[in-house]
Amino acid sequence: MATAILTIDLDAIAANWRALDRASASGVQTAAVVKADAYGLGVAPVVRRLAEAGARRFFVAAAEEGVAVRRALGPGPQINILSGHMTGDAPLIRDHDLTPMLNSLDQVTRHLETLPGHAFGIQLDTGMNRLGMEEAEWEAAAPFVLEASPVLLMSHLACADDPDHGLNEVQLANFRAMTDGTEVPRSLAATGGILLGPNYHFDLTRPGIGLYGGRPYEGAAPVVRLSLPVIQTRSVAAGEAVGYSCAWVADKPALIATVQGGYADGIIRSLSGRATLWAGDVPCPLVGRVSMDLITVDVSHLDEVPEALDLIGPHQSVDRLADVAGTIGYELLTRMAPRLNRVLLGAK
Ligand SMILES: *Cc1c(COP(=O)(O)O)cnc(C)c1O
């Protein structure tokens, strides 16, 4: 097998969902955010496992993603679309029973005209300035929107991963001011918001990254392991260079392992010359450039070169690797490429 192996622990995803579910009061429902192919891990097996664990509501970014969730789960669970109701979405929303979170007066009009009586929610902008109706727009729309019985009023926090950030409380106050007294179910918290405490939970929480083992949920069970097979090893003499642009030169004789896995697999190029791989418990430095399919690793200090080296695993979480790359775990996960050989643990 010459492709890198991405092991995805579906039982760990289910355990993380249950733990985040327990983090809020018993009357609070816990949804699951599975946009971007379940953060790159494969939406069908992930939603089936989460449904088995008890999840009944799912959030995706676009209607097309919602169709994939419906196909995997069949009728029953509610599938919410964060981008709302875009031009041309009506057939998908109707035929696959999707629930758009409407973001503007335009979307409200489109939805009520094309699919009268079809379930919808409303997304409000409480300070992130990204998606949703702002206060003035909501004030104008609220009377007839509430008349049409939305299933959810939601908003999203911009800085929930930083509990001390002042915007959290500002957004909370804005959300209350815009929704108090409506008697419509409400949702404000993603993973970070759940960790901010019960004031932020309302009726429904929407964890994404925490399910997949990422920050800011430090207590998460690890979900992914990325193992790269060693294709060959070679001895290089002091002064010899390795890889494109001769970016690394041996300062003493070295043993270099060439392993399968490169930027086309999601191992981004900014890891060049910086990342560490693991031979079991022993760290081995990545040397030279990350190329499309391959990386090179200094294994001079190993007694025996193993069949594969771990880039993500027990010694290096996806977030720690993201720190090295100068990015966040979300980005590394969603870049995991289709050609990786995916091994699922705990599939239902
Ligand atoms: C992505 C997203 C979430 C999930 O956020 P995490 O930080 O991954 O938990 C929840 N709500 C909205 C609106 C989102 O865009």
Automatic annotation (TrEMBL):
Pathway: Amino-acid biosynthesis; D-alanine biosynthesis; D-alanine from L-alanine: step 1/1. CDD domains: PLPDE_III_AR (cd00430). Gene3D superfamilies: Alanine racemase (3.20.20.10), Lyase, Ornithine Decarboxylase, Chain A, domain 1 (2.40.37.10). Its cofactor is pyridoxal 5'-phosphate. PROSITE patterns: ALANINE_RACEMASE (PS00395). Keywords: Isomerase, Pyridoxal phosphate. This is Alanine racemase. InterPro entries: Ala_racemase, Ala_racemase/Decarboxylase_C, Ala_racemase_C, Ala_racemase_N, Ala_racemase_pyridoxalP-BS, PLP-binding_barrel. The active site is at K35, Y244. Residues 223-345 form the Alanine racemase C-terminal domain. The gene is alr. GO terms for molecular function: alanine racemase activity; pyridoxal phosphate binding. Substrate binds at R130, M292. The keyword Isomerase applies. Its EC number is 5.1.1.1. It comes from the Bacteria. The modification N6-(pyridoxal phosphate)lysine is found at K35. The keyword rRNA-binding does not apply. It comes from Stagnihabitans tardus. SMART domains: Ala_racemase_C (SM01005). GO terms for cellular component: cytosol. Belongs to the alanine racemase family. GO terms for biological process: D-alanine biosynthetic process. PANTHER family: ALANINE RACEMASE, ALANINE RACEMASE, CATABOLIC-RELATED. It catalyses: L-alanine = D-alanine.
